[in-house]
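Quarterly update from the structural biology core.
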Amino acid sequence: MKITLALLSFLLLNACSPSETTPPPKLFKEQRAVLDQAKAVDATQQQQAEEQRKLIEQQTQ
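Predicted structure, tokenized:
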């Protein structure tokens, strides 16, 4: 009885475990790409704002 239960448990665990040949799913790939683009745009905007602040400071001095 115990051997049968152990064997069934082993088979169940092996059947439910993911196959090593299956590549991981690429979840939210498009969303990540859009987020990366938004981060790049944000960095550019911050750099331009900093340059504009420096120009304003130079003109007021």
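The chain has a mean pLDDT of 85.
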